[in-house]
Amino acid sequence: MTPTALHWEQLLSIHGLIVVFGLLVYVLTNHTLQQRRAPAAAISWVLTIALVPYIGLPLYLLFGTRKFVRLGSRRLRSPLPSDPRSEDDWSRQLAASMGQPPVATYRNLRIHDDGRMALECLWEVIDSAERELLVCTFILGRDRIGDALIKRLVDKARAGVEVVLLIDAVGRLMGRGTRLHRLKAAGVRIAIFGPIVHVPFRSSVNLRNHRKFLIADGMRLWCGGRNFAAEYFDGLGRHAPWRDLTFDLEGPLVAQARELFQRDWKFATRSPRTEIRHSTEAPDPPFAQLIASGPDQADDTVHNLLVTACFKARSRIVAVTPYFLPGDALLMALSLAARRGTEVDVVLPRRSNHHMADFARHRALRELAAAGGRIWLTPYMLHAKAVVIDDVLAMAGSANLDARSLFLNYEFMVMFHAAAAVGAFADFIEKHRALAARYEPRAPSLMRDLAEGLLLWLAFQL
Question: Which overall architecture, per CATH, does domain 106-269 show?
Fold first, then answer.
């Protein structure tokens, strides 16, 4: 054997060992950490590690973690006794089986019509705080809205209110690196969630805290899809404000949101976790249920509830979301609902702020339209996130109908059961549907079909 042939044989042997090592790391970490994945995502990771291990393995170590909680570690909670008159009893039982807190009473629900009302309600909730203000956000803008929020938080802290801010590390960069020194100088406690540099499998740059809410004194909650930045309220520069959905309410339900904030804070600050116990007493109506989704949950809670809701729906499913990349199971459930005669309406912006998501969404839109679903495109940027099932169930909060929100991000949703609340969220979606144009699917060219498939494959985790 010539020296050159021997050299190549050694290189191939080393390459083969690296491939085997990479695949072994993938198998062992998935088994040990119970990283359940969709088949397409699993195949994509295996192919990437096998074909280009020098790129695939580092990417997997950086982005491959999906869950920090094992499936067998969740504590099952007892749902309310079954009520044969309740059409949404299944949702409470399913949520309880996934370890979510039980339903709780709320009052004074206000759905914000526009950015101006959302901002007025935000300032009102902040001003009402006498003891404690907890703020969780993805983005805190370096603009007039972010500055105004910081000023109010500083004033509250100096007035003796305990102010606590939890902000996502990547979201902070997207908000142009909001300066937090004024808050720290005033005594505000601050934690950065998910630092960019981290220990593998303890955190992940790909798992972002997308939850957005503010709690005053443990009794008032402001939450939804809006980040604390100008484009979500009154516009940025010459650009019109995004249309979005936020709401506020009061009552015992807020205690569940406070407990979720405390869990996130302890994770971000590496503090020891404490056991949380919820009351099992049946609340008086109206009641709702906090649904947390993300790596801190053993199940894909929001996704599982939506898939089940599609099969339970009798007359209609209406949804609003800025991005529509739902994954195979949810897309199939929506399509089957439409095929059996359920009205399925999805409201989207004609152009969102994520151009790749707009490009890749057409494959799912064509499939849903072919099944009889109706897609509506608004002429403005619509950032709202809500789903209404018949007249019995509404979910609203921070989760988009895309794989990132449903399988990767930390998300915050509230599931409403009262007819009045369900109707109010349905009216909100209908207001935007009335201003939208019907989506007309077109058969893709061969090149576009390949490009869509390639983009979806490359973005299987990102």
Answer: 2-Layer Sandwich (3.30)
